[in-house]
Design brief:
The complex is a heterodimer of chains A (83) and B (97). Chain A has 83 residues and is mainly alpha-helical. Chain A has helices at 3-13, 15-24, 27-51, 59-82. The chains are: A mainly alpha (83), B mainly alpha (97).
């Protein structure tokens, strides 16, 4: 285990309280937690790609960044319209 | 321990600690709009600390450039997302009043 794997593990653990927020609070608060979860996921995948020394895995954080943004936009649009 | 390893460790510890602070902010802040600030904060200094740690190792190889692209994407795209979310929050809270 190198420093990047430890950092990725810590960042993955940080997802758990956000999951609780998404389940317990209002949907709009869950969206805020989902967006922060997307940021943490991008950082986690970056640390894992470096920790495992696999340069082809660097594509995953790029995809996570783009898809996290797009999915958040879709949720924001419909949550704002349907309530 | 070489200087590069020390720099990587310090940058990762600072990055993860600041992400933890952002998660705590989303958990305990009173209003939804206050919590949104912490999502924006998570895409700035902590993300750049983790990027700097990766670049200490990868320098400007293909992996390093892809890491720069990933962090740049969340740095430039998330403000758009947070603005859309803030508008949705305004609508939700208007409909609840």
């Amino acid at each position: 285990m190198n420093a990047f794997i430890w950092a990725a593990t810590a960042l993955a653990i940080l997802q758990l309280p956000l999951l609780v927020v998404a389940c317990v609070r209002r949907p709009i608060d869950g969206l805020v937690a989902l967006e922060l979860s997307g940021v943490l996921l991008t950082a986690t995948l970056l640390c894992l790609a470096e920790g495992f020394h696999r340069s082809f895995e660097y594509t995953l954080p790029i995809m996570a960044a783009v898809l996290g943004t797009i999915s958040g936009l879709v949720f924001a649009r419909f949550l704002g319209r349907w309530t | 321990m070489s200087a590069a390893n020390l720099a990587v460790d310090v940058l990762l510890i600072v990055g993860v600690a600041l992400e933890l602070a952002c998660v705590v902010g989303v958990l305990i802040m009173p209003t939804t709009l206050d919590r949104l600030h912490y999502v924006g904060a998570a895409t700035t200094v902590p993300a750049f600390c983790i990027l700097a740690a990766v670049l200490c190792r990868e320098h400007l190889s293909s992996g390093g450039i892809e890491a720069i692209a990933a962090i740049a994407l969340i740095f430039f795209l998330f403000p758009v997302l947070l603005t859309a979310t803030a508008r949705a929050i305004e609508r939700v809270e208007e409909s609840e009043d």
